Amino acid sequence: MSLIPGTLVLVNGMGILLRGPAGSGKSDTALALIHAGHRLVADDAVDIQRLDDTLVGSAPAAGAGLLCLRGPGLIDVAACFGDGALARSATVDRVVDLVDEPLPASTEADWRSIRIHGVPCPRMAVAPERPLSALLEVIATGGRTTQPRPEAPACG
């Protein structure tokens, strides 16, 4: 087991590990997702354990159930949103890095494989100023098309 900086959220049953520099919006994104009915696993640091070919994340004991927000400080998620807003653990199914990493315009998703404890995991970079909670909901529901959309007919 090892401690990885980041925030782990459970969105529609998919564990998404958010990573990025301090102030990039990981905790704010988790708050928006919790408000939308999703669950927090861990904030600021995630204990990651490899079980066969699966990564499982949980909160360190000292931070369990807490969300650290700039301004308000530490928030007790269960007290604010109920016990259903927390999950004890989740598989790490996707990694989303909140960084300004220029990506080419494309109709295809830009998932790249990274390894955590030797286990391959899909990783995507997303600029922090994007609508992160909505993007993560789309990622978790698989709501993207695998085919480019047809061009709209010309107007006029």
Write up this protein.
By secondary structure, the protein is an alpha+beta fold. The protein has one domain (2-141): P-loop containing nucleotide triphosphate hydrolases (Rossmann fold), CATH 3.40.50.300. Helix content is 16%, strand content 38%. It has three helices and twelve strands; from the N terminus they run βββαβββββαββββα. It has helices at 26-35, 77-81, 132-141; strands at residues 2-5, 7-11, 14-19, 39-42, 45-51, 54-58, 66-69, 73-76, 89-91, 94-98, 112-116, 119-126. It has a six-stranded mixed beta sheet with strand order 4-2-3-10-12-11. A hairpin with a 2-residue loop joins strand 5 (45-51) and strand 6 (54-58). The radius of gyration is 16 Å and the shape is globular. The protein starts with a strand and ends in a 15-residue tail after the last helix.
